[in-house]
Design brief:
Blueprint: H1 11-36, E1 39-40, E2 48-49, H2 53-60, H3 63-96, H4 100-111, H5 113-128, H6 136-143, H7 160-170, H8 175-185, H9 189-197, H10 203-214, H11 216-232, H12 236-241, H13 254-264, H14 268-293
Antiparallel strand pairs: 1-2
Length: 297
């Protein structure tokens, strides 16, 4: 009886499908964006090479970018990125103290907004923060006598960013949160027992000396996902206010600035230059997170 001939694929053959997908959806778009950033391209005529002019204009003549976009993005990144990351760790640690069944239900409840955030923005948050008397928040505040007349929350430069941060934090507990929760619940209990024998006296010390060092890979993954999520939800201001640019540029972030020039003004070369700056910014933040949580030999 003949033996069946084994068919062994070389390693490169197994990596080829991933390499093709990665090239089509990551490498080619990034290279195209970098090349377009050195051109003037209005989507009608062929791209015209302009060198570094788009970058020079971005940092010298684009008053909207320097006056509104940069400060708004920094504030948004601090509250939603850093604040959301700290909140995700706190929630994950809190859930890890519960029983398995309760923890599972609460984790699903906290995670679900990250899946349906874009849909619910239009159906829930815009109704809550509606600027008329029928808006839920205005109605409740007027009933309690806190305000005398309705506030246009989504059209006011004083409140739009605050609302954006609330909505973004509500939908920021995604896979990074689940990763941290999984890491905490899988830390060996004997490590905690040994730590208390070595001098750890309370939960606060337990978190810093045992929990965080034990889940550095999950913390790193959560940090990267927090950075990505921060800019992925940057269009929340447009969704809430219904316009791009947002009212008085109050909710204008780098992502919305790119959409404004790329898809509304059709200045694709300039939009590509802004996207390259955003890519470098994300790379810088990701590198910092990697150094912070990298495993030390």
């Amino acid at each position: 009886m003949k033996e069946k001939k084994k068919f062994n694929l070389p390693p490169w053959a197994l990596l080829t499908p991933y390499g093709i997908i990665f090239s089509v959806f990551i490498i080619i778009p990034v290279v195209a964006a970098v090349l377009l950033s050195f051109t003037y391209f209005n989507t009608i005529r062929p791209p015209e090479f302009v060198g570094l002019q788009n970058y020079i204009d971005l940092f010298t003549t684009d008053s909207t970018f320097l006056k509104y976009v940069v400060p708004n993005t920094i504030a948004y990144a601090l509250f939603v990125g850093v604040g959301g990351y700290i909140l995700s760790f706190f929630l994950a640690w809190s859930l890890s103290q519960l029983t398995h069944g309760v923890r599972t239900v609460m984790a699903v409840i906290i995670y679900s907004p990250s899946l349906t955030g874009g849909i619910l923005i239009a159906n829930i948050w815009k109704v809550i923060f509606d600027g008329s008397e029928t808006g839920y928040l205005n109605y409740w505040l007027m009933e309690l006598g806190v305000i005398a007349e309705p506030i246009k929350w989504l059209q006011s430069s004083d409140y739009l960013m605050v609302v954006m941060i609330i909505v973004a934090l509500w939908s920021s507990m995604g896979v990074g949160f689940l990763s941290i929760l999984s890491g905490i619940t899988n830390v060996d209990k004997e490590i905690y027992e040994a730590a208390y024998m070595d001098g750890v006296k309370n939960r606060f010390q337990e978190i810093f000396y045992v929990t965080i060092p034990s889940i550095k890979p999950q913390m790193l993954f959560g940090a990267v996902m927090a950075i990505v999520n921060t800019f992925q939800t940057s269009g929340v201001g447009v969704a809430l206010s219904g316009s791009n640019p947002t009212p008085n540029y109050a909710g204008q972030l780098i992502g919305t600035h790119i959409e404004d020039f790329g898809f509304i003004r059709n200045e694709m070369g300039y939009a590509a230059a802004v996207s390259v700056v955003l890519l470098l910014f994300i790379k810088l933040m990701s590198t910092g997170a990697n150094k912070l949580f990298a495993e030390k030999d």
